[in-house]
Design goal:
Cytochrome c-type biogenesis protein CcmE; signal-anchor; transmembrane helix; 2 domains; membrane; 7 strands; 3 helices; single chain; alpha+beta; CcmE-like_sf; disordered C terminus; 160 residues; OB fold (Dihydrolipoamide Acetyltransferase, E2P)
């Protein structure tokens, strides 16, 4: 092999190794920013055909309805515990902070946080549904899959 060809080969190999390393570093950095969405039934029964369940310590978002009678507030702190439910699953959520004004029992919410065990999420953020006609697309799709005969919500914006 002549020296010129050998130098080109070394250069190409170094570029490929550099690109591979850069890709690996980007994927590693983005790994911590991925929050998967689950419904309570997907957390209990598994998601998809493989029935994959989230693992403790995993960051995730879970959406469902606040179970009536399940909201427990600590009178001395901002700590709140409540249960989320859907068609076939119930999970508990604990949150330390100020809840949105629209948060109430029977209301749809999305809690973002870390899974402590199979059915308990420690939420870092709680989002409440902001309009009775609006349902987040992820929740609407999940509810349509669980209840295909029922109309869940309408994402369209209607003039007042």
């Amino acid at each position: 092999m002549n020296p010129r060809r050998k130098n080109r080969l070394i250069l190409v190999m170094l570029v490929l190794v550099g690109l591979g390393l850069a890709t690996a570093l980007v994927m590693y950095a983005l790994r911590s920013n991925i929050d998967l969405f689950y419904t309570p039934s997907e957390m209990v029964n598994g998601k998809g055909e493989q029935q994959l369940k989230p693992e403790p310590g995993q960051r995730l978002r879970v959406g469902g309805m606040v179970m009536p009678g399940s909201v427990k507030r600590d009178p001395n702190t901002l700590r709140v515990a409540f249960k989320l439910y859907d068609a076939s699953g119930v999970i508990s959520v604990s949150y330390d902070g100020i809840l949105p004004d629209l948060f109430r029992e029977g209301q749809g919410v999305v809690a973002q946080g870390v899974l402590q065990d199979a059915t308990h999420v420690i939420a870092k953020e709680v989002l409440a549904k902001h309009d009775e006609k609006y349902t987040p697309p992820e929740i609407e799709d999940a509810m349509k899959k669980d209840h295909p005969a029922q109309a869940v919500g309408d994402n369209s914006v209607r003039p007042s």
